[in-house]
Write a structure and sequence with these properties.
Length: 400
């Protein structure tokens, strides 16, 4: 299945089909301009886009969507799910921390036979997905592990470490999802605004005729940087993106109908398909207000307590809300927006407190391998009781 087939649908909503290939649907201004004209980078429907870093699996390995996604993940496994994302069969661990089994007969051999570009799996071990699907294109050959691209059969040798690196097993990071650190950006569409006017007409694309009523889609603003973090439905630290809807209705006389209009503010978690080899820095998460779910703004300490001043003033923008559109939680841990999955939520007050506790240490102790992080609780205790530490000398110098 070529990736063009996938992107025909996956170019709206989470837009993972665009993000994987490094395309971000931008504001409708058509910038940067090309001479005296709007730029010619267009998606379906005349939507503009800009180029951003593509997913490393595409950029470096030239992998197509189908190289990762299994037949059960794409076509279904015979079960009905409340959310289609629960049907997805593949995970990062399936390839980067694989479980191999020898498969004799069955679906895997049939798929290899049909593909004909991937080597046969007779007397070989293949990786198994989280739902038990054989990943016939990830094979163990002796002590080596090879990933075969399904479209052309090209072999890519995988380096599977015998033991996880220290940055993958740090104390306090047990709940981190892979995407929390390795996704470089996520499409963020704030304040989608739909208007329905009964006093206008619009083409019905099923009947190909004009019908009463007209819909129009607008947005408040779009962003892609600094993904917001929170806790997903699987109790993992993961990325969140807004799904915020304003619906304004007008009657046949063009009068606004406040009782029939609505607004819903939701944050949803998904894999944006923008994976990079490099991870976010410690400061990107522990010291950045947007990453913590507070929104863009200035985070600082005053009188021993954390204070936050948002950049975006939603109230003065006449949106009818008292919090910024990009805020998921207050600095005190109060949730501001709903989530799309049961159990998903922003960081609570205690979690925010623990995360931000590192903020003051990072200017000097900026590396994950710094020994103060091997047992951070003990390091804090030493800081509070041992006044001859270098930290106190710096505090006295810069904050007398």
């Amino acid at each position: 299945i070529p990736s063009e087939t996938c992107t025909r649908c996956h170019n709206r909503s989470a837009r993972i089909g665009l993000s994987y290939f490094g395309k971000f649907e931008s504001e409708g201004y058509g910038t940067p301009y090309e001479g005296n004209e709007l730029n010619n980078r267009r998606l379906s429907g005349g939507r503009f886009y800009i180029n951003l870093p593509a997913d490393v699996h595409h950029n470096k390995a030239k992998m197509e969507c189908i190289d990762c996604h299994t037949e059960k993940g794409v076509m279904g496994d015979g079960k009905r799910y409340d959310s289609l994302k629960d049907q997805v069969d593949i995970t990062c661990e399936a390839c980067h921390k694989p479980d191999f089994r020898e498969i004799k007969g069955g679906l895997a051999e049939k798929l290899v036979f049909l593909n004909k570009r991937v080597p046969r799996i007779v007397n070989k071990e293949v990786a198994i997905s989280k739902k038990g699907s054989p990943l016939y294109n990830l094979q163990k050959v002796g002590e080596a592990v090879f990933f075969y691209r399904k479209m052309d059969g090209k072999a890519i040798e995988m380096k599977i470490p015998a033991r996880e690196e220290i940055y993958h097993r740090m104390s306090g990071h047990e709940r981190l999802s892979c995407q929390a650190c390795h996704s470089s950006w996520i499409p963020q569409c704030y304040g989608c605004h739909y208007t329905y006017r009964q006093d206008q007409r619009q083409v019905d694309w099923l009947s190909k005729r004009e019908s009463s009523g007209s819909w129009r889609e607008l947005r408040s603003y779009l962003r892609f940087s600094k993904p917001t973090l929170g806790i997903n439905s699987k109790n993992k630290v993961a990325l969140f993106s807004p799904c915020q809807i304003y619906v304004s209705q007008f009657d046949e006389e063009g009068r606004y109908l406040p009782k029939e209009s609505l607004k819903i503010f939701t944050m949803t978690s998904f894999d944006p398909h923008t994976t990079q080899k490099e991870s976010r820095s410690c400061l990107d998460c522990h010291g950045d207000a947007k990453s913590l779910g507070l929104g863009e703004g200035i985070l600082h300490k005053q009188g021993g307590n954390w204070r936050f001043r948002p950049t975006y003033d939603a109230w003065r923008s006449s949106l009818g809300i008292h919090f910024p559109l990009d805020a998921f939680v207050t600095v005190d841990g109060k949730q501001l927006q709903a989530t799309s999955r049961k159990g998903a939520r922003p960081f609570n007050q205690e979690e925010l407190k623990r995360i931000m506790a590192l903020n003051s240490c990072l200017p000097c102790h900026s590396e994950y391998k710094d020994k103060v992080y091997f047992n951070f609780d003990e390091s804090i205790k030493r800081f509070q009781t041992e006044k001859d530490l270098p930290c106190w000398e710096l505090i006295g110098k810069y904050a007398p």
